[in-house]
Amino acid sequence: METLFFYILGTVALAAAIGVLAFRRVFYSAVALIICLTAVAGLYLLLNAPFMAAVQIIVYAGAIMVLFLFVIMLLDPFSGAIHPDKLRGLRVIGPLLGILGLIAIFPALRAYDLGMAPRSPQALTGDTSSVELLAETLFNHYLLPFEVTSVLILVAIIGVVVLAKREKQDGHGH
Amino acid sequence: MDINHYLILSALLFTIGTVGVILKRNVISVLLCIEIMLNAANLSFMAFSRYLGQVHGQVMVFFVMVVAAAEAAVGLAIAIVLYRNRGTLSVDDADTMKW
Amino acid sequence: MTDFLWLIPLLPLAGSAINGLIGRRLPKPVISLVACGSAGLSFLLAALTFFGLNSLPAAERHIVETYFTWIASGDFIAEAQFLLDPLSAVMLLVVTGVGFVIHIYSIGYMHAEDGYYRFFAYLNLFLFSMLILVLAGNFLLMFVGWEGVGLCSYLLIGYYFERRSAGDAGKKAFIVNRIGDVGFVLGVLLIFLTFGNIEFTRVFHDIAADTQRFPVEAGAGILTAIALLLFIGATGKSAQIPLYVWLPDAMEGPTPVSALIHAATMVTAGVYMVVRCSPIFSRAPIAMEVVAVVGVITALFAATIGLAQTDIKRLLAYSTVSQLGYMFVAAGVGAFSAGIFHLMTHAFFKALLFLGAGSVIHAMSGEQDLLRMGGLRRHTPITYRTMFIAALAISGIPPFAGFFSKDEILWSAWSRGHSIIWILGLLTAGLTAFYMFRLIFLTFHGHERFPEETRHHLHESPPSMTLPLVILAILSVVGGLVGLPPWLHLGANQFEHYLEPSLELALLPQHGAVSHSVEFTFAVISVVVALIGIALARWIYLKRPGLSDTIAARMGRLYRLVFRKYLVDEAYDFLFVNPTVKASTGVLWRTVDIAVIDGAVNGTGHSIRTAAGILRHMQSGLIRSYAAWILAGLLIMLLYLTFMRA
Question: Chain A contacts of B26, Cβ < 8 Å?
């Protein structure tokens, strides 16, 4: 069962990702990405992490993508292929590089022997889905990074506001 | 069902994202592809978290999401400024940092 | 007494440094004081040293003062050491004494020059170098002085550097000297190879001690080779054939320079060096022969050129070349002390002649052509009288200094079997008297052949210039008395006796028990020849003024050849100078410098620029391209790590 769901969700995610690439109009790409993110959330569920799945939907698909959509709407949402391509060679080189990359890391993927990795007694049966466990780890072991990320967000907010501010016109333009 | 399935999927998603960064010419599309890459990495972390029985992978995903949010926000702000100054969202048109 | 030996050269060096570095801002009286003061103090110390040396018994008059080890490299050691013995003491007195007098003279002569401080700085530097040369205790230190005087000669010849001819003359002097120096250096190297060290005392001792290895050489041996090489250096420095050509041109320099450097001191360095190396030369008969022959031929040759010269300074220059030839004749026949004696007397009267010529030029507002002078004795009496005395001295008229020294040389030549040299020397003496008095008569006697305007400025020189003339004149009169010949029955030759410890004389055929009356006869012959020369000059230039022109016209071709100095300069130009210049320009400059070196350097720059021009297109500003490159680089590393490393 699990395998089936994995293949279904996996296919959806891949198809959506390819869709992000394939669509000419950026709005369609964004929507394709939302689908991809949702599929990934489903995969998280499969991986026994419902909390993270929920966070994925809420934060990623819900907040970040909405932000994307806002900006897309603000700036020319339905424009087609813009301006002539100055680097047409990349149409070949890009995919080529991608394939090479896959080839490069493929041996690492197939032969991974979990037996070598350190594991806790709850392996494969462990309850990593527990939110309490997550919270405990987060606020005990990772407290400092947690606080730092809040500073990071603050900085990001300030940066964004400064960047996107409109220039004042001469006099009191409107 | 072992971890390799998830890892292969993650690798494929990552590759798609990378190729997208190189191929797409709209700034915002590039940002979208970056999000794909980040998600692929998150998937990897989650898989390891499950198959090693630890929760540290999920914590990592947590932080990645935070950073991704901040990065997406700033990136979009830059895209807005770019559009405002040049009237176009084409990556190829922002080429003044050259010889 | 030798405690202050090192001060003798160092005082002029200090004077030179002061005048050279800050002289531009000093007032002229201060410059003069520094320069002449240091020269004068040096002379004082030299005199004290001389008397101090004489207070020692004759056998002990050989002091080596070592100050520090200059070079110690493997087997080669060169100390900074001075050698004080009768020979160097005499040279010290001559150099500092005449030097000091000429410094005084220069105050008046150069007073109107802008580069006043520069002149005195160079002059002091010259004194320093010459004193180093004279006092040196080993060959290398002597060479330092040797080169130093060459440098100062160059600097002072080219003093009027704004004149192209002055610069050229300076270069010529330096380069021709350099050619001689090659011989000198090779000689020193050979000495080191043979003896393992280059100290005078040790080398000469080794020669004397090891009669097996260093016999009197019948043919060509190592000592002959050394002697000939050293002599090449001497021909350069002392202007003998074939390297004399720089001396006439050196007259471009100020007259005091001509007097000091090119008459009294620097040009005598070659003679000094040969005499200093008497232990070497006296064991190399072939080399001695060469020295004597070159000397006498040069003496005669230069004297003939002097017959036709019209520039007062050039005439004196050729006269110097001629008299230096005499000194080499003396050395070559083994009469080393006679050579030094003539060196000393020559310093007196030649310096006097040059300074007098300077006085004349000064009075004539810069005119140097004999044919445009005349009748000056009424206007410049002191100059006239002192120059007359000098002319008598150089002509060898007793009791003036030149007679004793020149006569001793001629007698030594004859008594040691070199009769041909004697004849040629005698002929030269006659010519010397002739051209000298030709100069005197044309300049000071007869009709005045100069324009009205010059007459207005005609005046005797100031005391700062005439006083040195008088001093030198007195020395020209009495200077010969230190070397009285035995036939006067006034005691032995004191000068020769004094110098004996410095020289290696035992091996040479001594002038045997020839009677004094023979020597007296020869002396009379010399005087008669000189008087004939003077009379001839008087007749041609005073009594029958047009006669010289008639003779010149009659001997047309020959006259022109002599007038143009036998075209030696032109020959050298053709044989050596022009090919060298052509090779430098064509090969070294055009090919090596411009094409190869510049080509490589510029080519490197050009190729880098081209390569950069191609490479910079990578920085296109397109970030997609950058992203692709980053990815490609990353992949290469990954592929390598995955597949190449197992």
Answer: 26, 79, 82
Contact B33, B20 (CB under 8 A): yes
Percent of chain C with pLDDT over 90: 31
Q: How many residues does chain B have?
A: 99
C620 interface with B at CB cutoff 8 Å: yes
Cβ atoms within 10 A of the Cβ of C456, count?
Answer: 9
pLDDT (tens digit per residue) in C437-466: 989 988 888 778 777 777 777 778 888 888
C171/C68 Cα distance (integer angstroms)? 34
Return the closest-CA partner of residue C35 out of C15, C17, C13, C21.
C15
pLDDT over 70 for what percent of chain C?
Answer: 96
Domains of chain A: 1-80 (1.20.120.1200)
What is the ipTM, given to two decimal places? 0.92
Question: Does C86 sit behind a cis peptide bond, omega within 30 degrees of 0 on the bond before it?
Answer: no
Tokens of B52: 């090693």
C588: DSSP letter:
I
Q: Is the pLDDT of residue C431 over 70?
A: yes
DSSP type of residue A23 = -
Measured between alpha carbons, how far is B36 from B20 in angstroms, rounded to an integer? 9
- Sort C261 into a burial class: Cβ within 10 Å, 0-12 / 13-18 / 19+: buried
**Residue C625: count of CB within 10 angstroms of its CB:** 20
Tally Cβ neighbours within 10 Å of residue C603: 11
Which one of A87, A90, A104 has the shortest CB-CB distance to C642? A104
Domain-located, residue B97 = no
Which of B4, B8, B16, B34 should one mutate to test binding to chain A, selecting the residue with the greatest count of A CBs within 10 A?
B16
Domain residues for the domain of B54 are 3-92
Taking only Cα atoms into account, the Rg of chain C, rounded to an integer number of angstroms, comes to: 30
Total domains, chain B: 1
Q: Which amino acid, B48?
A: F
Contact between residue A20 and residue A36 where contact means Cβ atoms under 8 Å apart:
yes
- C495: buried, middle or exposed (CB in 10 Å: 19+, 13-18, 0-12)? buried
CA C255, CA C264: separation in Å to the nearest integer? 12
Distance separating alpha carbons of residues C386 and C367, to the nearest angstrom: 20
Q: Report the chain C residue with the minimal C-alpha distance to residue B25.
A: C624
Nearest to B70 among A40, A118, A153 (CB): A153
In angstroms, the separation between the Cα of residue A12 and the nearest Cα of chain B is 11
Within a domain: B79: yes
Q: Read off the tokens for C593.
A: 């410098």
Q: In this predicted model, what pLDDT tens digit does every residue of C610-642 receive, in sequence order? A: 999 888 877 888 888 889 999 999 998 888 887
Band (C366; pLDDT cuts 50, 70, 90): confident
Question: Do the domain assignments include residue B66?
Answer: yes
Q: Give the number of other Cβ atoms within 10 Å of residue A51's Cβ.
A: 16
Looking at C158-221, list the stretches that DSSP marks H as alpha helix, in order from N- to C-terminal side: 164-195, 200-209
- Mean pLDDT in chain C? 86
**Cβ of C622 and B25 within 8 Å?**
no
Selection from C83, C93, C86, C85 nearest residue C135 by Cα = C83
Cα angle: A84, vertex A90, A92; to 5 degrees: 120
Closest listed residue to residue C483, CA positions, set C348, C356, C389, C390: C348
Q: Which of C288, C283, C116, C278 is nearest to C200 (CA)?
A: C278
Q: Are B63 and A131 in contact (CB under 8 A)?
A: no
pTM summary value: 0.70
Which chain C residues in 542-601 lie under 8 Å from chain B, judged by CB atoms?
none
Is residue B88 assigned to a domain?
A: yes
| Contact status of C644 with chain A (Cβ, < 8 Å) | no
For residue B83, give the CATH number of its domain. Answer: 1.10.287.3510
Q: What share of chain A is helix, strand, coil (3-state, %, to 5)?
A: 70, 0, 30
